[in-house]
Amino acid sequence: MKVCKFGGTSVASAEQIKRVVAIIKSDPTRKIIVVSAPGKRFPEDEKVTDLLIKLASAAETNHDIEEELEAVIARYRLIAQGLNLGESIISIIETDLRNRIASNREDKTLFTDCIKAAGEDNNAKLIAAYLQHIGIEARYACPKESGLLVNSRPERVRALDEGYDRLEKLKDEPGLIVFPGFFGFTKDGTLRTFNRGGSDITGSIVAAAIRAELYENFTDVDSVFTANPTIVDQPVAIKTMTYREMRELAYAGFSVFHDEALMPAFLRSVPVCIKNTNNPDALGTMIVKERDHSFQPVIGIAADSGFSTLFVYKYLMNQEIGFGRRLLQILEDEGIPFEHTPSGIDNLSVIIRSKHLNEENSERMVRRIKEELEADDVKLRNTNYSMVVLVGEGMRHTTGLAARAATAISRTGANIEMINQGSSEVSLVFGVDKKDENKILRELYTEFFQESPLYT
Question: What is the reported pTM?
Fold first, then answer.
């Protein structure tokens, strides 16, 4: 039994949905279909989720919402017409949207979540209706009724383990199940959405709950590549990688798979395959617990920008018990998460995503560190740093890899601001100036992949 998730581009139009149905029909073990909201049909197009955000904004400011509402309905109507479906499904979708708009607006975040989730929810209803229309036994599954439970605010949204037993019952139902991605419900019935791209998370949760033999994540690329193909010319495809490697690469900028989506599948050992809706016969990339890394210690190279550095210096810092804990407590008090903490004997740097900083909390954080920790020097550099990451399970067994990487970077003339290696040795991170990011990626690709025996 397989769970398949289809992303926004895969369900953006009637033609794409027909391709999805052909994929489903080609393999009777594909039991549960998780779908996103309709995505872009062409580069200048708008995603339905973005249209829904505009609708939510108009409703919150008490503006006339008819124009924004019609823009959403028009997208579904065009899809329905292309699938030869009647107006009844559009009537269902319009009623649902108007009910959401009329819902409680006291909590702006929850109201916006409710509106945004309409994209996936109504697309699942439409696709289920189309499957029934062409004679396939199928039904739409409501996440609330099926048991996709999530935690309550203010915590970051995550699925609750107790919902898995209810979700597991889906595997015993007849026919195909069409399940909307992106959202779940708290125990009191409040809708909450995962982060953007959260349909990947839904698919992973459902696959883990029914203990699927495979979770297929259909997108618009044939596989995961060793580097960003918009930067590196024709990078090689990755045939097999581990959960940890994919997690590191997704976090560091690989947008093909949501970085939070692997945990449910990992915990229940469900293998994941990234495949292309428009080329379903391509092998794709398998994500598994273990792989043979003897030939290729580095599996991929990624980069992400938008980082700032908090530099803290205090003489004899290493002898002051609890200094690091108190420093991080200040960040916690300010609601600021951190990414890396490279340190020396008397100094410590904290790498922070710049989006979490503003003038107010930055000034307060620096002042508190100076006053409460009696630091000799505190500096916050809001420079747009990039983190270039080498990822691979075999790195821990390879001598001289860091030297090779540093030498490759030096050939570009770029300066390395920071080096950090995780305790698991699955990733090696270099902090560099944003302007040098692309040329560093190309040089590292040349160093580690151009003559790779794994792909020759």
Answer: 0.86
